[in-house]
């Protein structure tokens, strides 16, 4: 009996160890693919930024299109935005049975909203816009760094990413209680995208924010960004839900996002930020930045140095005729540039600072006229603008420095190694080591940092000697059962207490015995989902993989070693995965330790062709480019109607052709757009857009 017990114990331990290893591999696959998609998003943005930098609009119509395409939201004046999003002109029909809001909001309104959303009801667009406008007014009065004290409440609850998963928010409120004067909450960004109920989460959070402004605090995340929303589903989901007034709501949400605070401090000892820090993080600078300038953090990168030099020459009043020794004729100036007055003495710092501000303002107004952007009307004083005005004698930072501060706190991740380096995996922010954490904590007399931004299997994770805590509140993020969600509670002693959960409705009704069997079955389903996504990723790089395999197959035998297979695959897809460990799940058969790579790639192609009846090479290109194509389509589709008008396509093609040095007449562009409009309805939908891409690739 003892021997049997030992054998059973050994078998069970081996089984659990294998399951854990499989779970970790599955996790690595999901996370690597997610970060790869984020990297693609930043690459796509860089492409559009390059187009912007090298495109010279030839008419006011093209300048208007550029303005709408790249600085959408900033071109709205204060009064224009409120007029455009006027909720009072909207009538609520008598047939509407959903919740109704009146301001100022009361706790009963929040309770009614929660019950309505549980019953799958929607809030009428009138109330949504009214709520967003009130939220925006409130956020504009808040500092960049919110300050929370445990003296006024028993504890503070910190929640991480929710990503549109309303069930997780319901579960948090069910277990921990609703926000109240005695129960404070900090929601640490990434409320939207990926999940299907992003708007409902925003409505609930904004409602509680207005009811309990001293107890509910919201931080901005990297997904509270218009350019990111275009790719990860929030924009498309909102427009599908609210077709009539969706455009207005999206415009207002976009403006609300840029007013969200950037960080929260608990008892001056615990700093809560969405992503992380860097070796240049400066909380004093963060506190004084006009955060609303950065509607999209992805738009902040500076142009190429050559363009920057040209801009500096223009601002300094140097024309090409003066700089060009050959004496080429300079292009005529569009408007007379203001000449700055003589600078006062540096001895009087206050007077000099005012002179700098006046001169810069004159140059900004001149640049606005140059690109045909009207001067925005005077806005009401906000907290950040008051801070700037009261600190005239302080340091002046460039927009690039301010942008980097925000980018780092929204996009960065911790790493175990010392130092600080560029975050090449995500494509934005940086990796910061324990020494960087220690430096920031010492500089500002902090105990530890709380951040989110990364999905963790258990919902939370400590690193850097427990000085950095990652909290992630979206359970089942990649797949049902893939991870737990968690939130953390801090009392006056600032000792973290965690609550973990999984809001899986399927598992709630099961008995303990059934739940164990369900868990084992779930492992297999999650693993299969991860490997299916990985095989799609590999298939999308078929051509590059063949080239990498042939580099190791000098004799053209069609076979390579498994070691060379692993090295070649990583060199192409660059996901940082343990390919030798994953090989049994990806490579079905081998002969004498050698892999016939052509037949292996054919097997990958057969899997994908079973889903799409398109030739293999073409399908590979579509798999590799679909996300980028979808994002490009949404960027062109400025009114978010799901359709591209001929005018929108015409202006976009002019932009592309400038970058690609393609000479195409207006008649040629008109012929092109008519050929893509397959159903001849005068617009291009996404299916036509994708079909046109497919046909072009097929002909190539």
From TrEMBL:
First-level EC class: hydrolase
Residue span of region Disordered: 309-342
UniProt signal peptide: none
UniProt KW Hydrolase keyword: yes
EC number: 3.1.3.16
Gene Ontology biological-process entries: detection of stimulus involved in sensory perception; negative regulation of MAPK cascade
Domain EF-hand: 540-575, 624-659, 664-699
Catalytic activity from the UniProt record: O-phospho-L-seryl-[protein] + H2O = L-seryl-[protein] + phosphate; O-phospho-L-threonyl-[protein] + H2O = L-threonyl-[protein] + phosphate
InterPro entries: Calcineurin-like_PHP (IPR004843), EF-hand-dom_pair (IPR011992), EF_Hand_1_Ca_BS (IPR018247), EF_hand_dom (IPR002048), Metallo-depent_PP-like (IPR029052), PPP_dom (IPR013235), PPP_phosphatase (IPR051134), Ser/Thr-Pase_EF-hand_contain (IPR012008)
GO molecular function: calcium ion binding; Hsp90 protein binding; iron ion binding; manganese ion binding; protein serine/threonine phosphatase activity
Cofactor: Mn(2+)
Keywords: Calcium, Hydrolase, Manganese, Metal-binding, Repeat
Pfam families: EF-hand_7 (PF13499), Metallophos (PF00149), PPP5 (PF08321)
Keyword flag Hydrolase: yes
Annotated family: Belongs to the PPP phosphatase family.
Record's protein name: Serine/threonine-protein phosphatase
Organism annotation: Crotophaga sulcirostris (Groove-billed ani)
Source taxonomy: Eukaryota, Metazoa, Chordata, Craniata, Vertebrata
């Amino acid at each position: 009996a003892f021997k049997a017990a030992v054998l059973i114990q050994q078998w069970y331990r081996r089984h659990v160890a294998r399951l854990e290893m499989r779970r970790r591999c599955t996790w690595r696959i999901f996370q690597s693919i997610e970060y790869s998609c984020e990297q693609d998003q930043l690459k796509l943005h860089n492409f559009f930024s390059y187009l912007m930098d090298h495109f010279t609009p030839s008419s006011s119509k093209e300048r208007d299109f550029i303005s709408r395409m790249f600085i959408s939201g900033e071109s709205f004046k204060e009064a224009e935005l409120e007029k455009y999003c006027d909720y009072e002109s909207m009538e609520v029909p008598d047939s509407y049975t959903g919740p109704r809001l009146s301001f100022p909001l009361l706790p009963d309104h929040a309770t009614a909203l929660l019950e309505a959303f549980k019953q799958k009801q929607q809030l009428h667009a009138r109330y949504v816009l009214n709520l967003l406008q009130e939220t925006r007014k409130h956020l504009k009065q808040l500092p960049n760094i919110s300050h929370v004290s445990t003296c006024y409440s028993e504890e503070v609850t910190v929640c991480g990413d929710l990503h549109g998963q309303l069930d997780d928010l319901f579960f948090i409120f069910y277990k921990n209680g609703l926000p109240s004067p005695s129960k404070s909450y900090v929601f640490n960004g990434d409320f939207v995208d990926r999940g299907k109920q992003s708007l409902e989460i925003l409505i609930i959070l904004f409602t509680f924010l207005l009811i309990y402004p001293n107890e509910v605090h919201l931080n901005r995340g990297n997904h509270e960004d218009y350019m990111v929303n275009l790719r990860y589903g929030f924009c498309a989901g909102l427009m599908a839900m609210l077709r009539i007034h969706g455009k207005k709501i999206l415009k207002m949400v976009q403006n609300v996002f840029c007013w969200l605070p950037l960080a929260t401090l608990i008892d001056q000892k615990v700093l809560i930020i969405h992503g992380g820090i860097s070796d240049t993080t400066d909380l004093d600078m963060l506190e004084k930045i006009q955060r609303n300038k950065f509607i999209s953090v992805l738009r902040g990168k500076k142009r190429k140095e050559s363009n920057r030099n040209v801009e500096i020459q223009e601002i300094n009043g140097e024309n090409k005729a003066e700089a060009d020794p050959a004496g080429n004729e300079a292009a005529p100036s569009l408007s007379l540039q203001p000449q700055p007055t003589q600078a006062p003495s540096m001895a009087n710092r206050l007077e000099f600072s005012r002179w700098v501000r006046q001169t810069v303002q004159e140059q900004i107004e001149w640049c606005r006229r140059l690109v045909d952007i009207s001067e925005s009307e005077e806005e009401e004083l906000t907290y950040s603008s008051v801070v700037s005005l009261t600190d005239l004698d302080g340091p002046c930072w460039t927009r690039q420095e301010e942008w980097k501060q925000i980018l780092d706190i929204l996009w960065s991740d911790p790493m175990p190694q010392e130092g600080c380096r560029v975050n090449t995996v995500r494509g934005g922010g940086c990796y910061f080591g324990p020494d960087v954490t220690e430096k920031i904590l010492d500089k500002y007399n902090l105990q530890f940092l709380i951040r989110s931004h990364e999905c963790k299997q258990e919902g939370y994770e400590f690193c850097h000697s427990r000085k950095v805590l990652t909290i992630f509140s979206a359970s089942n993020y990649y797949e049902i059962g893939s991870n737990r969600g968690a939130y953390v509670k801090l009392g006056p002693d600032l000792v973290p207490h965690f609550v973990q959960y999984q809001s899986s409705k399927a598992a709630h009704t099961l008995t303990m015995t059934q739940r164990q069997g369900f868990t084992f079955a779930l492992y297999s389903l999650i693993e299969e989902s991860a490997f299916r996504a990985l095989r799609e990723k590999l298939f999308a790089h078929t051509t590059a993989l063949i080239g990498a395999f042939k580099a190791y197959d000098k004799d053209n035998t069609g076979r390579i070693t498994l070691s060379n297979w692993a090295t070649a695959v990583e060199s192409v897809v660059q996901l940082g995965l343990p390919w030798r460990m994953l090989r049994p799940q990806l490579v079905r058969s081998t002969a004498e330790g050698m892999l016939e790579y052509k037949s292996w790639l054919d097997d990958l192609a057969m899997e994908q062709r079973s889903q799409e009846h398109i030739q293999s090479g073409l399908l590979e290109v579509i798999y590799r480019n679909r996300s980028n194509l979808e994002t490009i389509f949404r960027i062109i589709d400025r009114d978010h109607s799901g359709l591209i008008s001929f005018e929108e396509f015409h202006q976009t093609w002019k932009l592309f052709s400038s970058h690609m040095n393609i000479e195409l007449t207006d008649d040629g562009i008109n012929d092109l757009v008519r050929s893509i409009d397959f159903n001849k309805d005068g617009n291009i939908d996404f299916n036509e857009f994708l079909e046109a891409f497919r046909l072009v690739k097929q002909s190539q």
